[in-house]
Amino acid sequence: MTEAIMRRRVGPGRFQMKSENLIYPVLAFLLVFFILPIAWFFIKSALDYEGNFAAMLLETFTSPLFITVAWKTIWISLLVTLFALAAAYPIAYSLTRSSSFTFTLIIICVIVPYFTSIIVRTYSWMIILGTKGIINEFLIYVGVIDKPLNLMYNMVGVVIGMTYVLLPYFVLTLFATMKSIDVWLLQAGRSMGASNFYVFRKVFFPLSMPGIVSGFLIVYILAAGFFVTPALMGGPNDVMMAMLIQRNIEVTLDWPLASALSLFLLVVTLIIYAFYCKYTDMDKMLGK
Amino acid sequence: MFNQIRLVNFISAILCVVLIAPILIVVVMSFGASSYMIFPPDSLSTRWYEEFFSSPEWMSSLASSFLIALLASMIATTLGFLGAYSLVRGKYGNKKLIISFCLLPLIVPTIITAVALYFASVPLELVGSKIWIAVCHAALAIPVVLLILLSSLQGIDVSVERAAEGMGASKLYTFTRIVIPMAAPGIMSAAFFSFLTSFDELIVSLFLAGLESETLPVRIWNSLIMNMEPVIASISTVLILITISLLLIELMVRKLRA
Question: Which fold has domain B62-257?
């Protein structure tokens, strides 16, 4: 055995492997198949554009359609992120203080949707919210309403659908922060006579703040670039940026306009991501 | 005092029901007999499953999705594993920056990635190629692999590797005989979740699939924007079952290991 190992060690053509170098394949792959196509898309669109690309960008970004869609995107994403936070916080809180049985139950309810295809999750809300959907049929059956409410193909549907799809991301981010909060701090507060609510407000909540910030930024980024749910559940007035980009390519074949819109969305995303990287403890991923 | 905690738990319970109910509703709906989406279904049948599994179009899209996801998962897991190992064990600075960079495919809106890849694929005549879609999906799955393996590799004691090297094993020998077997459960989770990432991916496939390589999500998408066929509920249930089985296998492997 030892001999075999030794032979390997001194054997001919021994491959020099240093763990430092093992990062290069993945970096090279992402560079070629991810960064390069995106860079090429913007550069080529700018070069191919006959006329002044900068002027075209300016014209695009001041057009009424762009401004409407940009506002809609910012506004819907903000609503979705706030609703997701409001729903995720109690769930994550219960996760941190539940027995192993309830923990398993809650985590199943979070993880199963998290890993289920987005298109399936959107479809399920289309069944629930449609004019002949479960909610409308139920309300008519009970007699609360006599004609169906418009819950889908409008902003209500988009916000409900997107909040549902993005909620697990927020729960998991919050939980990661909350579980590292030292329970003895809370015990100490309580033993000194503070009420549960006081301890929560003065100790737990401030300590959970990094999770709120990370979760908020990541969910906002995902919401702002969302395509599937708003495209399927939105009405003609609920066009978000990602949908406008897709339409300009599939319907009007307007590549320069699509690249201008993409550039805007990309820059906004990267700015928020820079904040995310700054405020999130990435070293934690490396176990420091 | 206890009432507040009870209230929070009560709210969480309701929210958990809201989280899981849509999934269960789809499963129940898929067994409905009528072509209308009525809940609860007035009579039960498996006709939509028969329709799904006997349709050559749906089956070919299922096969495309499967092949693409398998290849994408292999590429992403291999590259991601090497990268994660390097990040955990290598001695160099700027790791934070490297991780931030490697997570970009998760952050950049997929529509932009998809449009850019499509823009590059048209002149290169790559639209419709399954291998090409798999390569593009692998880029999207790399962040998932890295996130899983960065945390699982940290759980492996570096002293075992040092001991092997101290006893004269080469780096390559240590890597293949010590590191990979010890990291196997993490590698398996990474392979599963990168498989799911590709299997469920819609937007890149929508642009790159063409007619010959239509994946399952693309066909579902086309059906949802056209006429919402009732067969979608049974297909969704199959997808949910695949997800749950992968989660269960992953959980069992982790339990066995512990």
Answer: MetI-like fold (1.10.3720)
